Amino acid sequence: QVQLVESGGGLVQAGGSLRLSCAASESIFKFKAVGWYRQAPGKQRDAVATIISGGSTNYADSVKGRFTISRDNAKNTVYLQMNSLKPEDTAVYYCNAIASTPLGVEFNYWGQGTQVTVSS
Asked: CA 33 to CA 100: how far, in whole Å?
Protein backbone atom coordinates (compact mmCIF):
# COMPACT_ATOMS: atom_id res chain seq x y z
CA GLN A 1 0.00 0.00 0.00
CA VAL A 2 1.43 3.34 -1.05
CA GLN A 3 1.75 5.90 1.72
CA LEU A 4 2.06 9.63 1.22
CA VAL A 5 3.08 11.78 4.17
CA GLU A 6 2.74 15.54 3.97
CA SER A 7 4.57 18.03 6.13
CA GLY A 8 5.42 21.70 6.21
CA GLY A 9 2.06 23.30 6.85
CA GLY A 10 1.53 25.98 9.44
CA LEU A 11 0.47 29.53 10.17
CA VAL A 12 2.00 32.34 8.14
CA GLN A 13 1.21 35.99 7.52
CA ALA A 14 0.00 37.18 4.15
CA GLY A 15 2.93 37.67 1.81
CA GLY A 16 4.94 34.94 3.50
CA SER A 17 6.15 31.60 2.24
CA LEU A 18 5.87 27.93 3.12
CA ARG A 19 7.23 24.78 1.58
CA LEU A 20 5.17 21.62 1.73
CA SER A 21 6.71 18.19 1.38
CA CYS A 22 5.10 14.93 0.29
CA ALA A 23 7.19 11.87 1.05
CA ALA A 24 6.16 8.70 -0.76
CA SER A 25 6.78 5.19 0.54
CA GLU A 26 7.75 4.07 -2.96
CA SER A 27 9.70 5.45 -5.86
CA ILE A 28 7.87 8.42 -7.36
CA PHE A 29 8.95 7.16 -10.78
CA LYS A 30 6.16 4.60 -10.58
CA PHE A 31 3.50 7.30 -10.51
CA LYS A 32 1.83 8.71 -13.57
CA ALA A 33 1.46 12.04 -11.77
CA VAL A 34 1.89 13.52 -8.32
CA GLY A 35 0.07 16.63 -7.28
CA TRP A 36 -1.18 18.90 -4.56
CA TYR A 37 -4.83 19.59 -3.87
CA ARG A 38 -6.44 21.82 -1.30
CA GLN A 39 -9.76 22.01 0.44
CA ALA A 40 -11.05 24.99 2.34
CA PRO A 41 -13.92 24.63 4.85
CA GLY A 42 -17.23 24.17 3.06
CA LYS A 43 -15.58 23.95 -0.35
CA GLN A 44 -14.66 21.16 -2.70
CA ARG A 45 -11.15 19.79 -3.03
CA ASP A 46 -9.38 21.47 -5.94
CA ALA A 47 -6.17 20.77 -7.78
CA VAL A 48 -3.36 23.22 -7.06
CA ALA A 49 -0.33 21.86 -8.91
CA THR A 50 0.66 18.64 -10.61
CA ILE A 51 3.91 17.21 -11.87
CA ILE A 52 3.70 14.55 -14.53
CA SER A 53 6.11 11.60 -14.75
CA GLY A 54 7.97 13.23 -17.64
CA GLY A 55 8.53 16.35 -15.56
CA SER A 56 5.98 18.75 -16.98
CA THR A 57 3.92 20.76 -14.52
CA ASN A 58 0.45 22.23 -14.33
CA TYR A 59 -0.90 24.90 -12.00
CA ALA A 60 -4.26 26.28 -11.06
CA ASP A 61 -4.67 29.83 -12.36
CA SER A 62 -5.00 31.13 -8.82
CA VAL A 63 -1.47 30.05 -7.90
CA LYS A 64 0.46 30.56 -11.13
CA GLY A 65 3.54 32.65 -10.55
CA ARG A 66 3.39 32.12 -6.79
CA PHE A 67 3.61 28.35 -6.27
CA THR A 68 6.18 25.93 -7.65
CA ILE A 69 5.95 22.14 -7.63
CA SER A 70 9.14 20.13 -7.81
CA ARG A 71 10.44 16.68 -6.96
CA ASP A 72 13.52 15.01 -5.56
CA ASN A 73 13.61 11.55 -7.10
CA ALA A 74 16.34 10.33 -4.77
CA LYS A 75 14.22 11.19 -1.73
CA ASN A 76 10.89 10.09 -3.27
CA THR A 77 9.56 13.49 -2.30
CA VAL A 78 7.49 16.11 -4.05
CA TYR A 79 7.52 19.70 -2.85
CA LEU A 80 5.22 22.66 -3.14
CA GLN A 81 6.95 25.98 -2.66
CA MET A 82 4.35 28.60 -1.86
CA ASN A 83 5.31 32.27 -2.04
CA SER A 84 3.31 35.48 -1.72
CA LEU A 85 0.68 33.64 0.26
CA LYS A 86 -2.79 35.11 0.53
CA PRO A 87 -5.55 34.51 3.09
CA GLU A 88 -7.53 32.74 0.37
CA ASP A 89 -4.78 30.12 0.20
CA THR A 90 -5.90 28.92 3.63
CA ALA A 91 -6.91 25.26 3.35
CA VAL A 92 -5.92 21.71 4.10
CA TYR A 93 -3.40 20.69 1.47
CA TYR A 94 -3.34 17.09 0.30
CA CYS A 95 -0.78 15.19 -1.68
CA ASN A 96 -2.11 12.92 -4.42
CA ALA A 97 -0.38 10.29 -6.51
CA ILE A 98 -1.77 8.39 -9.48
CA ALA A 99 -0.43 5.00 -10.44
CA SER A 100 -1.42 3.36 -13.71
CA THR A 101 -1.23 -0.35 -14.55
CA PRO A 102 -0.16 -1.60 -18.01
CA LEU A 103 -3.85 -2.18 -18.75
CA GLY A 104 -4.63 1.43 -17.96
CA VAL A 105 -6.30 0.95 -14.60
CA GLU A 106 -5.56 3.93 -12.38
CA PHE A 107 -5.17 4.02 -8.62
CA ASN A 108 -5.39 7.22 -6.60
CA TYR A 109 -3.48 7.63 -3.36
CA TRP A 110 -3.93 10.44 -0.85
CA GLY A 111 -1.98 11.74 2.07
CA GLN A 112 -3.56 12.74 5.36
CA GLY A 113 -3.36 16.46 4.64
CA THR A 114 -1.54 19.38 6.21
CA GLN A 115 -3.15 22.62 7.34
CA VAL A 116 -2.02 25.91 5.85
CA THR A 117 -3.39 29.05 7.45
CA VAL A 118 -2.58 32.50 6.08
CA SER A 119 -3.45 35.44 8.30
CA SER A 120 -4.22 38.88 6.93
From this structure: 9
| 37-96 residue pLDDT tens | 999 999 999 999 999 988 899 999 999 999 999 999 999 999 999 999 999 999 999 999
Beta-sheet strands, E only, within the chain: 4-7, 10-13, 18-24, 31-39, 46-52, 57-59, 67-72, 77-82, 91-100, 106-110, 114-119
Tell me, what amino acid is at 69?
I
DSSP 84: S
Cα separation, 119 vs 102, whole angstroms: 46
Residue type, 50: T
Collect all residues with Cβ–Cβ distance below 8 Å to 8 and sequence separation of at least 6.
Answer: 18, 19, 20, 21, 114
